[in-house]
Design goal:
This protein is of the alpha/beta class and about 375 residues long. Helix content is about 40%, strand content about 15%.
């Protein structure tokens, strides 16, 4: 048996593949188009591992996907493939419509044809797990109850609208065709291999380089934060025991404002990579792999001094919060990490993986950050 993972070279997908193969011997067929956020270096530790079968391709490829299903005969498809950055969706929504809606449609069609061709136990055992986001629910007022699985959809960005549409397609394929689907809606993930245009890795790397830490608006937007490895364990649990046709919200029970998150990052960095008052330079350790950082900001007393407020983005949702009570009650899952423990692990990972950071910091990435955050 095997499983097919789509988007398995991206942030959440690659963490899932790594965690799966650390705990299971069941092979993974990994289909990824390797767009800007897909990075095979995330999976370098699996080089030579026969259980990991990587295929570069698109979930919307109506010839490739059926051929992979026929060849490998997976017992499940786990769909992580998505365009996911809100800022990018504002400036270029077309890719989001194509991947998140049209791509999901074609993947569902391939899955339906494959599932219809299975016999007996294989057909009963098959699952299609669709990984989605809390952003489909829209924005919450400060004191409103957290999103549960019956909250109506009110997406406010091209990204969240495209994910909402994909969720509806998945639901429709279950109710119309009987395809055995499961949907998860997760809160903001953070952790290893996070592409550094997102808030947490962006601020870690900017701080280490002595660059401004951009905060949209007043920084009081609230998000529920989920350590990515906890998310992976939740998806495994849903695949194992989830009720077909159901949706499960996955959250970390960790509501924080963006400003609180960045301030916490600064305080951790002050502990582990502090400014050296004697030399007036950023003290980053003495190992041969330690980054060489600019002394341009040598007079800054703490990393918090780098916090810079920038104009808010259009349609910025004020608050997200996930009620993850259903998955705990019905499937016995809850996160292991608090935000405090998970964010320390994340900072340490970025400090210890400077080669990965250097390789992902391409010219195209720097151009993007300059265009959208530099002002």
């Amino acid at each position: 048996m095997s499983i097919l993972v789509t988007g398995g070279a991206g942030f959440i997908g690659s963490n899932f593949v790594l965690d799966w193969l650390a705990q299971e011997n069941e092979p993974v067929v990994n289909l990824d188009r390797l767009t800007y956020a897909g990075n095979l270096e995330n999976l370098s530790s699996l080089e030579g591992d026969a259980r990991h079968i990587f295929v570069r391709g698109d979930i919307g490829d109506a010839a490739l996907v059926p051929s992979l299903l026929a060849l490998h005969k997976p017992r499940a498809i786990l769909n992580f493939a998505a365009e996911s950055h809100v800022d990018r969706s504002i400036h270029g929504p077309g890719e989001f419509i194509q991947t998140n809606i049209v791509g999901t449609f074609h993947l569902l069609e391939s899955a339906r044809a494959y599932w219809n061709g299975l016999d007996g136990d294989d057909q009963r055992r098959f699952r299609f797990v669709h990984v989605s986001t809390d952003e489909v629910y829209g924005s919450l007022a400060p004191q409103a109850p957290a999103f549960n699985e019956t909250h109506r959809y009110e997406p406010n960005s091209p990204y969240s609208a495209s994910k909402a549409a994909s969720d509806h397609l998945v639901r429709a394929y279950h109710h119309t065709y009987g395809l055995p689907v499961l949907t998860t809606n997760c809160s903001n993930n953070y952790g290893p291999y996070h592409f550094p245009e997102k808030l947490i890795p962006l601020c870690i790397l900017n701080a280490l380089a002595g660059k401004p830490l951009p905060i949209y608006g007043d920084g009081l937007q609230v998000r529920d934060w989920l350590y990515v490895k906890d998310h992976c364990s939740a998806i495994r649990r849903v695949l194992q025991s989830g009720l077909v046709g159901e949706t499960y919200n996955v959250g970390g029970w960790s509501e924080k404002t963006n400003l609180e998150v960045v301030q916490m990052l600064c305080d951790i960095l002050d502990e582990v990579r502090p400014l050296n008052p004697a030399s007036g330079e950023w003290q980053v350790g003495s190992g041969k792999d330690s980054p060489s950082l600019s002394t341009a900001h040598s007079l800054l007393p703490t990393y918090r001094s780098l916090i810079t407020y920038v104009a808010d983005r259009p349609g910025h949702d004020r608050r997200y919060a996930i009620d993850a009570g259903k998955i705990e009650r019905e499937l016995g899952w809850k996160p292991k990490e608090t935000f405090e423990s998970g964010i320390r692990k994340t900072v340490r990972w970025y400090l210890d993986n400077q080669r990965w950071v250097a390789n992902v910091m391409s010219g195209a990435y720097r151009e993007w950050c300059e265009r959208h955050y530099g002002k």
